[in-house]
Amino acid sequence: MLAGSTITVGIRDSDLGTHGWSARYAGDDGYCVIWGEVYVPGDASNAAQWLLERYEADGREALSELNGSYVAVLDSAAADEAIVATDVVRSRECFYTDDPGVRLFGTDPAEVSRPITDPRLDRNGILEFLHLGVTLGEKTGVGELSRLPIDSALTVDSVDSLERFVYQPQEFDYATELAERLERALRRRSSLPGTKGVLLSAGYDSRIILSQVSDVDHSYTVGSPDAQEVQGAKRLADQYDASHTAFPPDERYLRADESKIRYSQGIKESLHIHHAGYTDEMEVDTMYHGLLCDTFFRGHFTAQDSVDVFGKRVPISRLDPDPDPIESLLEKFGYSRGASLELAERTSFDVDPESFVREAIDAEFDARGDRARTVQNTLTCVGIANQPSIPFHNHLSDQFVTSFLATDRELVDWHLRTPPEHRTTETFLQACKQLDGDILRHRPPDRPYDTMLFNEIERFVRRKTPLLSSFQPPWPDRRTLFERHDFDRQLLADAEHVHDLPARHKLRLIDLRGWLECWTGSRGRSIPWLSPPQSTIG
């Protein structure tokens, strides 16, 4: 616990003080605490001391030099300011409320919201979660509880936007520059302590870690031993002399117990915490992963043009010259019109889901426009600001010292300066091959070609040809596992009216109920949103 003139803060982290990880410092003129992965320029041994001293000299400009995935808190008498700031892409959330009469903040929304005297469920926040799998912007499921926006700072009486994450496209050698920055970013992270592991897929992103961090001993994949994804990951592990463990997807994979619910924070799906049931069997100190590399380096949220192939629209390696932002984002967030209509019919929200999600996406798109001048960059900014898979990293960070490559400051800068037409898989692979010419010895099982169009054509032909097997999806089938382990009876026995919904939407209902019960359990508060249509929510 540290107390300054304006802020009191506590941190719980058994690795506090580890180089590249959480740090604290208290001096005569104030204190600083940083939670998460953090690197600073030069040879400073204490990142918190470096930030406090640099902040006293340069003010908020010092935050631009902080590198990693973190929440920083400082109270500086010399700078006459106390602030809380996340990293530039908000890879770690900070929640706050003013309801008790003094501003409270923290990284666990259940704890931050407990002192709220008369909490109100936020109808829009809950609906966004149920229909899109993510609560957009700064909302939560509780009306009096907010979260710090992307690239911003919290003070005692304001929320101030910063300018660290603004798109400024330039011309340079995109692949070579990315290769050099990847090399430096991975070199920084190679000094993390102890035995090292990586969550390994058969795709492109996590293999670059195996290629560049020489002392990764163990790799882990969730999937059946005979699945294409697992076999591909095993070949990569063998190539780079790492052991490989595959965890069969059993009941632990989907079960949303408190160990997953708390890290999804009531705003994102616990489904993305693929590894949660297996961490006790991962015997490493530091864990690496390739999360969000597809978003920052390979244009996951940019809108691709498409061509007609046998009556089906197939995406190609060219940007859509005139994208519809709402349609594009609904597709990227995995919105299902049919499933949402069915959900609306079976629950108590008297809302047309189609018009609701369109208005919500439109408002969020408009809110990010000041950070990007083009539609394509704004689409990506919306995706980064509302990244559904962040619970994956949240959970890992409480179990291991966890590296988050994609949040490296140099790599984020590359993302912001590279035009969207060059943030592609082709550019990324050119960079990777500059670092390791053998990195594509084993190609991803569903991407046998360098060209997106050829991969999509083969995927289509395999689906339509009786004698050919289709590419397997990278993750286990949710519906099969939900039915195999009888989760309707185990987890939704009191809600038969939702049993016919798709598995993913039922998992969202389970997540939301679990988080609200975690927060309100001691109060015996009812949870009316799950009721059949005859009752309503205020």
TrEMBL record:
Entry superkingdom: Archaea
InterPro entries (alphabetical): Rossmann-like_a/b/a_fold
Protein name (record): Uncharacterized protein
Species this protein is from: Natronorubrum tibetense GA33
